[in-house]
Amino acid sequence: MMRGIVGHAVALGLALGLSAGAPPMALRAQGYRITGTTLAYYFELQPVLSDSLPDSLATGTGLVRQSPIGTVGCPDGHTQCYFYRSEKLTHTVPLTQDLEVTGWGLGQGVSVYAHVRLRAHLLGESELWTRENDAFTALAAYGELVRERWTARAGRLWLTSQLGVNNFDGAWLAWRPRQALAVEGYAGRALIQGLSESFTSSELGAVDLLPPDVGAILLGVTARYRTTKGVRLGAEYQRELRNDRAGLYSERVAVDAAGSVGGASIMGELQADLASSALNEVRIRASRPVAPGTNAAIEYVHSTPFFPLWTIWGVFAPVGFDEARADASWTSAGRGVSLTMSGAFRQYQDTHTGVGFLPLRNDGWTAVLRGAWRLQPGWELTGSYRRDIGFGASKSDGNAGVRWQRADGDGWLALTGSAVQNIFEWVLANGYVVGASVDGGWQLRPDVRVSGQVGLYRHIAEDTQSTTVNWSQRRALLRLVWTTGRDPGMKP
User: Fold this and answer.
1) Fewer CB atoms near the end CB (10 Å): N or C, the chain?
2) Is the pTM of this model over 0.90?
């Protein structure tokens, strides 16, 4: 951690040092902007512990049996049957604080940027919230130098692309030889996506049984080209090497294209894992207006999970699926009514498992319906329903809400009701959750905004032991966003 912080400080120091020879006019144009986001959560939790009872109290044979408390599991060769029981209701209140700092005018085209996150536990049970013990994380911290044809950054960086979010400590260079063409290259010490920690950190060891014992170097290059007719082309190559050069952690490539033909917008993308010769994703989508206020689209997707070579999960050869999807949307002319419908059917690849007289399901489908109605200025009704049927499980959920917003946009209030039902074929219980929440926000000042949410959710389980209880969970969220300093895009 200290080595990473020192690296960020060096990057910022280099950027500041570049301003030493800047002319007085440039120094007078210096400025900064700081944005802070404070998030405080409140969650009620119902712990569940494993317990047992003598198998003599259970009736029947086999693994699943009946007992005075309900269904229990009785493994062969054991004298005990096992079940879960609910513990006393508890709660936790974690806090996160994000700070984004931008500074400019440090020299011709020189600026700095940093985004850090602080975490703390306020009340209730500790160690129940993800990474609450990680008090400080630098998500980004770099210096930037901009010229007419190129831009360079150095420090802690993160980049988004078809291949995901790439976190690394290193350098990034973008070159624009022509207005329609941009080429980017990046290299540095690879970090875990979403964690901003090295591959050998304890953060990864806590969730993976066989974490890598050597760090990685990230190398990548991307190219973007756009024609005068609106056709866009892109490609990216990325490689993660062990620090000792003894092998690969990953090697991937992605290409994408978009354009229009006969009034229809067409896009396609492909992602491939070169290290394991797997085609991770192929996506082709076409959409076009079919009538005033009405659009339609069709899409084909092939998807196979990607796993880097250092993790054992890729050994299990996860299967992918092929999916066909259709979407349609309609918006009324001047009446504030909109409707969206979509449906999809997917076919999973052969898992080479199961038995002949009881074949496993290898397909699934999804149906979604969404709607909104703006009753009058400031008031809107919304609703949605989604149904998923797949291998081993199914899910249905719906919600309906009403939202009010002030005419000046400084405040809003919303009420939402929801219901979710999950059915799993490979567990002994299923149930559903119903709930309601109230959301609101207010612009206290031009540079201070506060918002919050309070919700109550009722969990109702079916076919469970009498030792587990249905319970209601209360949740709350308070968000405060503030800024100081001037906007670089605004004139004094």
Assistant:
1) C
2) no
